[in-house]
Amino acid sequence: MDYGLLAIGIALLLVSYLVAVKKQTWLLAGFNEKMIKNKSLLGKVTGGTFFCR
Predict the structure, then answer these.
(1) Is residue 43 within 8 Å of 25, Cβ to Cβ?
(2) What is the spatial distance between Cα 42 and Cα 3, in angstroms, rounded to a whole number?
């Protein structure tokens, strides 16, 4: 078992949980926060996409 891949998987699950459930959108890179009108929807879509897979 490759423990490095396991650690990366757990880290991705943690980040996606924080974005989807806790609405920590500051963890997302590459978007302008001033342009986003509904941060709750952004967190739900991006975090939920990774968390549910």
Answers:
(1) yes
(2) 31
